Design the sequence.
């Protein structure tokens, strides 16, 4: 189930990432402005944000298997149709539809993984599952530009289309929905989890959503502006800066597994989440001071920052699923991802404008305020006593 969850999410990520790697072709060879090419590139992400909660609600009703398989099948169909799009409006509409469908693994694949692993092993499992997003981006980065250069847009769409189609078949045949308590009418005989209303009865989910939205800001600050910071402020060559960014992304992916293992060892997802939040304050302040420490130390600090700022994702994701329970986790995980995407969308213009006004050091220091605000919001383990026991599996 872990393997199929990773394959499903990675395939969807390849589709969502593909249009961004078509920007050079669209801009330099097809004559689109950067704004127009960027709008096309953003269409899948917009579609994904629109439907995350809806796919999660559907998985609460019918289970994860068919949600994932049908979403990937629709994504593959949209990708195939986009190969024959005759104009850019049609192409953008198909990217949007494909993005809407590709949200299904985001909402349901993590739940499959969490549901089939006991609590003491979920940290490692979710750390591995969270690697699927950088893996998907890497696949797109390695294949799409070369295929686009040789065969145009249609050739570039072959990889995401085939991956989503194959993944849809694999998930339809082999995914087994994790066990969950039966739905019963409310009353004396109802299962406690069927009566649990996590958003009404506690603030835990609201707080974790808020924490994740705050912590995604330093994450996207590092990933969005790290390369240009190395080149323009520290005078790295483009090649050297690209190597540093590549190493940082690989290290960040491994860091997700490491913090997952740590959470299994300490028996808590929330305690390491607080540690990560505190560490994010330190790394962003270190980024602010890095320019005065020399190029080598700046590169090291950037790599450490990339590891720390992505480490919260799996911890928060797992905590949300456990608190929400089997009848709410689909919607809760959809809300979790939606909040993160919305917060991430403001990083480019907001932090970019701040850098323009005050420079990189002060901007990085200002971003450190986000984890500083998030740290006291992280729930403590004793607050989980209100949650029905064994909230994900029977």
Sequence:
């Amino acid at each position: 189930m872990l393997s199929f969850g990773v394959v499903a999410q990675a395939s969807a990520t390849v589709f969502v990432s593909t249009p961004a790697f078509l920007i050079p072709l669209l801009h330099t060879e097809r004559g689109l402005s950067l704004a127009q090419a960027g709008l096309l590139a953003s269409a899948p992400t917009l579609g994904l944000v629109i439907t995350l909660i809806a796919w999660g609600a559907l998985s609460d009703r019918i289970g994860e298997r068919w949600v994932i398989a049908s979403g990937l099948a629709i994504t593959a169909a949209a990708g195939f149709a986009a190969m024959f799009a005759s104009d850019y409006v049609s192409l953008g509409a198909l990217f949007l539809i494909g993005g809407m469908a590709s949200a299904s693994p985001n909402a349901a694949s993590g739940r499959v993984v969490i549901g089939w692993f006991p609590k003491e092993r979920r940290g490692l499992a979710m750390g591995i599952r969270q690697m699927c997003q950088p893996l998907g981006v890497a696949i797109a980065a390695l294949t799409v530009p070369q295929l686009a250069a040789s065969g145009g847009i249609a050739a570039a769409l072959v990889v995401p289309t085939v991956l989503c189609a194959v993944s849809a078949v694999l998930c339809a045949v082999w995914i087994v929905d994790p066990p969950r308590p039966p739905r019963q009418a409310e009353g004396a005989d109802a299962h406690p989890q069927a009566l649990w209303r996590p958003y009404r009865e506690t603030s835990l989910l609201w707080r974790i959503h808020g924490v994740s939205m705050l912590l995604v800001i330093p994450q996207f600050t590092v990933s969005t502006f790290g390369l240009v910071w190395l080149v323009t402020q520290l005078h790295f060559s483009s090649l050297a800066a690209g190597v540093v960014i590549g190493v940082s992304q690989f290290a960040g992916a491994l860091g997700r597994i490491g913090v997952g293992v740590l959470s299994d060892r300490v028996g808590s997802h929330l305690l390491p989440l607080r540690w990560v939040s505190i560490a994010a304050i330190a790394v962003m302040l270190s980024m602010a001071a890095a320019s005065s420490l020399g190029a080598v130390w700046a590169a090291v600090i950037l790599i450490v920052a990339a590891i720390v700022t992505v480490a919260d994702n799996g911890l928060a994701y797992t905590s949300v699923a456990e608190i929400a329970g089997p009848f709410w986790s689909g919607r809760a995980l959809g809300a979790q991802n939606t909040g993160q995407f919305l917060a991430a969308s403001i990083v480019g213009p907001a932090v970019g404008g701040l850098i323009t006004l005050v420079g990189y050091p002060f901007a990085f220091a200002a971003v450190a305020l986000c984890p500083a605000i998030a740290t006291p919001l992280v729930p403590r383990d004793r607050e989980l006593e209100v949650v029905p026991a064994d909230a994900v599996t029977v």
About this structure: The two ends are 17 Å apart (CA to CA).
